[in-house]
Amino acid sequence: MSGPHSPTITADVVHLFPGQGDFGLTALLRTLPRTGSLAHAVAEVFEEADVVAPEFDLPPIGPRLAGSAPLSVGALAADPPGTVQLALFGVSLAVHRALEADGCRAQRLLAVSFGEIPALTAAGCCSTADGARLACRLGQLLTGHGGGMTLLGAGPSAAARLLAEAGPGARTVVVACVNHSGETVVSGPLDGLAVVEHSAEARGIPARRLRLPFMSHHPALAREAGVFADFARRLRLAPPRRPVYSVVSGRFHRADSDLPGALSACLIRPFDLPAVLGAALLDASLVVEAGTGSTLTNSVRRIDPRQEALAPIADGRWPTGSPAPLPSPCSGPSPTAAEEDAPRPRPDLDGGAEAPLGTGGPAEDRARAIDVLTRLSGLLPPRRAGEFGQLLAEHRAGQEALRTDLRTDTSAHRRLMRLAASLPPAAEVVADPDLLAALSEATALADPSLYQTFLSHYVLCVGSLVLLGGEAADRGGALAHARTKGSFMVTEFGEAGSHLEIRTEARFDPVHRVFTLHTPDQRAAKFSSVAAFGLPQQAVVCARLLTGSQDGGVFSFLVDITGADGRPAPGVSVSDPIPVDALPLPYGLVRFHGVRVPYDRWLPDGAVIDPAGVLHDPRSSPDARLRRTLGCGQGLWATLPSAMAALSGRSAAMAWRFNAGRRSHGRLAPGRPLLEYRTQQHAVLGALAAAYSLRRTARAALSTWADLRAARSADGPDTAMTFSPWASVDRSLALYKAHSTRTAAEVIDDLQHRCGVSGLFDHNRLPGYLGFARAFDSAGGDNTLILLDAGRALAEEAEERARSGPPPTDPDALPTDPTDPAWWPAVVTALRDRLAADLAAASSARAGAGHRDLELWNPLLEDALELGDVQARRLAAEAAAGGDGTDGRGWPVPRAADLAALDGLAGPLLATGVLAPATVRALPAAMDAVCDRLHRALPDIVAALDPGAGIARTPLDEPDRTTALLTRALLAPHGAATDADDRSWSRS
Q1: Helices of type H across 711-820
Q2: Which of 98, 82, 40, 102 minimizes the C-alpha distance to 65?
Q3: Pairing of strands 537-547, 514-518
Q4: Which residues does 106 contact at the CB level (< 8 Å), separation at least 6?
Q5: Strands 271-272 vs 174-180: parallel, antiparallel or unpaired
Q6: What is the pTM for the complete model shown?
Q7: Which of 41, 112, 126, 341 lies in disulfide reach of 98, CB 3.0 to 4.6 Å?
Q8: To the nearest whole percent, how much of the chain has pLDDT over 70?
Q9: 460-499 tens-digit pLDDT
Q10: Are 758 and 894 in contact, with CB atoms under 8 Å apart?
């Protein structure tokens, strides 16, 4: 069937798997005799698929397609429910196989609704027989519910207005599918569709009932969706072996995707093809429809006229060309260029806890490296990683010359757009924890304010869309590629610390099925970095959902903060910028005055509002809903420790290089190296050791998050929301965040002091790093409130254990050598147990005396805070305890980390009797011994722990710091100078 007008195959091909609305057999039967590969594929597929037909009391399809009598979809529809779906499944899969046999091999698959079943089968998630079982069962469930679907010749806004104005009889009809700007499908009961069709005719809007004896993409199918998900789970679907983009979920399926859940979502969730097509077809050279119709192909042509698209059966044009290579079956980004030589192996400071470089392939080695650019080259295609690193390096020079009004400072957004051009779509970045952590490190090292912009957009805004099922709200992929800057609005200015009582309101209008967003007073104004205008901005806004008299708790909504012109959207008011020196971004206060938010901009997370305006939420309580809504915080807490470890490691490396070149002018030892002084040794080596410990804490945080994602839950342990919601979202991750930010701030603060006046220069980055770490003492969940909630919960658990469990650890059973790898974890665990038992006893005694709530806990809050802090240190100690602490060269860096971690705990350790006074007095000598052992190895250790000299080098790293400062024009010349060596200095 190929001919002169058949398209030539190019490398980046996408196969489109359509839904059920455009399935016919006439064109297929006409094509079969002329295309041998298609005839062979049809016979092969139905030989595999028809074996399941008897399980559903269906006639086989293959023999009827091969028979002499013409077969039609109408004839199939007269057979039992599931017959048409079996035929559609098999034909789509056969067209796909025939295309690949003739060289049109797909690098990616795009699936619309029912098309996910043959697409996932083609991607290796299940056998052809199991795919057929899914198709048949879905047909039975849909047909059993009834209803129908109508195609409207109108865009989504006009369709929504039509439904709103059609009267009470249309309340059960919903927008199901947006094909393009001029075509929308609505779904609902037959009587409701009749009302809508009559209303459309009266308004001159074309309306055509689809030949489907059921509704789909409708919330009334929630029961059927649950049954279908259970059925799919019994088939044990495997991860896809090539990328499959789901139009309904608005993302690529990954190795950890809930495929049964995604398939069942197609029954109840609408889709907006124009909103997701850009991300799905990015860089595609040719898209080909794996079906018998052309509706999907025509929608692609309408949405993007530049995209070459082909419907080979309907168009009568079969593609030709030499086969393109199939992609390798992997779930994450794959390099697209030749791998570079592996970097020089770095010391393995963990003693085998992490495989040394060189044991895997080059990409695997890079993905484990501490140097962040090296690691990115193993997580991104090398060319993209290089572009990303170059952009970060260029940023610093540009920012130093930038002097602009915050109100018009869109530089953060412009930098974000440039970086996004080197990255996969945002949802894919969020779905890859290792990549997300490495990008967090890189942006934080280059510029903390850039990191904050990256964090708000990727982790919190897009992360909320991914977590709560709102990716389809990103119409056109503006957030996916950072053309629109995303923010996350949870903090309300007048109640900034807690987030337990969010007062912004989103009231639902059941007639028009929209929400109205309202800020009740200025204390409820949201605080966010959105006060610079000129480019489009959106935000995920946390607000209390009100419908009728029902308070549904706190949900998230995707809201336009500005229009496409970058000016505030109607009903949105933004204050003048509020300068924040620690993070110089255009922060401001945002209020909403009756802002209308479409229903599909609500991030429902499985909740639905029925036609009567009643909310049905699968979460059991307002606290459970708040915990879930704030679940995007898990991504922040899992990746922020990586950024803090990077800043600590970079700061420690700079401080060591600065101090290694300094000489003492004190009278005790004039001219001797400054690092011979024990106080300076303890500070610098302690900082290096703390950076090492934070690196291990960061890995533990990522591992904890991975476990939570694998369990498909955003709910942590059921910790009561006493002081804030954060520990309830996940206690361990919240404690990792609290510990890493406070430790990083303490480390950088001390290092700044150890660098003297040079530590105060902005050009040397330490002030910016310190301000950034301190900002996160409150940002991202207030550390004090996290520790208070954790301490209170631990005391309650200790009280419960005291009734039946073993007593706290006996200090006499602890290891006695402070350099023993097991010593510090055992000590801090014993301290935690003692403090928890003491607090439990005190709270129990006060409760027995009749005290309640604040009266009970107020005298105990300092104890609860201390207990929470000790538990955070215990988690860090456990994370750092892996391996034997050396790399075979006798480098006890972890032991130095343990000794450094004792700072501030001597009092509690003595007061509880966990350590004896003689042991505490001996600790400085133990640290001296560690310093002596590590002294000669420090240059190699610094090189091993420095994460970012390539993108964050400063004059402190240079042998001649003064010349480096002058070369970088930190000191601008003023006045006349005649001495060639003195040109940068002012003269009177």
Answers
A1: 726-729, 731-754, 766-775, 783-802
A2: 40
A3: unpaired
A4: 13, 14, 15, 96, 99, 100, 242, 288
A5: parallel
A6: 0.63
A7: 41
A8: 84
A9: 999 999 999 888 888 888 999 899 999 999 999 877 566 7
A10: no
Q: Which long-range contacts (CB under 8 A, 24 or more apart) does 706-712 make?
A: 706/433, 708/634, 708/733, 709/256, 709/433, 710/256, 712/258, 712/261
Asked whether 96 and 122 are in contact (CB, 8 A), the reply is: yes
Distance, CA of 837 to CA of 538 (rounded, Å): 48
Closest C-alpha among 741, 688, 750 to residue 897: 688
β strands within 181-260, DSSP E: 183-188, 207-209, 244-246, 251-252
Whole-angstrom Cα distance, residue 475 to residue 465? Answer: 12
In the block, tokens 């190019």 appear at 10
Sheet holding 286-289, edge to edge: 251-252, 244-246, 108-111, 13-17, 286-289, 309-310
Tens of pLDDT, residue by residue over 2-55, are: 443 444 444 589 999 999 988 989 899 989 988 999 999 999 999 999 999 999
Determine how many CB atoms are found less than 10 A away from the CB of residue 762: 10
666-723 pLDDT tens trace: 778 787 777 788 888 888 888 888 888 899 899 999 988 888 877 655 444 455 556 6
181 residue type, one letter: S
Measured CA to CA, the distance from residue 608 to residue 223 in angstroms comes to 13
367-419 pLDDT tens trace: 456 777 777 777 777 667 776 777 776 554 434 434 456 677 788 888 888 88
Both tokens of 159, joined, read 């369709």
Instruction: Count the neighbouring beta carbons within 10 Å of the beta carbon of residue 868.
Output: 31
Residue 619 token pair: 């979460």
CB 112 within 8 A of CB 275: no
Amino acid at 565: D
Per-residue burial over 158-192, b if 16 or more Cβ lie within 10 Å, else e, is bbbebbeebeebbbbbbbbbbbbeebbbbbbbeeb
Q: Which amino acid is at 798?
A: A
Tell the residue number behind the tokens 């009932």, with chain if given.
209
> Which pLDDT score, from 0 to 100, does residue 809 have?
52
Which of 136-140, 156-160, 645-649 is least confident?
A: 156-160
Distance CA 613, CA 546 (A): 10
Residue type, 255: A
**Hey, what amino acid is at 956?**
L
Q: Which of 792, 668, 825 is nearest to 724 (CA)?
A: 792
Structure tokens at 598: 């479409």
- Alpha-carbon span 915 to 781, nearest angstrom: 33
**Which residues, listed in sequence order, are joined to residue 518 by a DSSP beta bridge?**
505, 593
> Any idea which residue has 């950088």 for tokens?
748
Q: Helices 678-710 and 861-880 meet at what angle, rounded to 10?
A: 90
What pLDDT score was predicted for residue 925?
83
φ, ψ at 78 (rounded to 5°): -75, -15
Question: Which one-letter amino acid corresponds to residue 432?
Answer: D
How does pLDDT run across 846-888, given as a tens digit for each residue?
A: 999 999 988 999 999 999 999 999 999 999 888 887 644 433 3
Spell out where 183-335 has E strands.
183-188, 207-209, 244-246, 251-252, 271-272, 286-289, 309-310
pLDDT at 342 over 50: no
At 610 the pLDDT is: 93
Amino acid at 96: H
Name all contacts of 578-584 with Cβ < 8 Å and 24+ positions apart. 578/531, 579/406, 580/775, 581/771, 582/448, 582/768, 582/771, 582/772, 582/774, 582/775, 583/448, 583/449, 583/452, 583/529, 583/771, 583/772, 583/775, 584/406, 584/449
Cα 472 to Cα 226, 243, 549, 600: the distances in Å are: 21, 18, 29, 8
Using alpha carbons, list the distances in angstroms from residue 29 to 35, 318, 987: 11, 14, 92
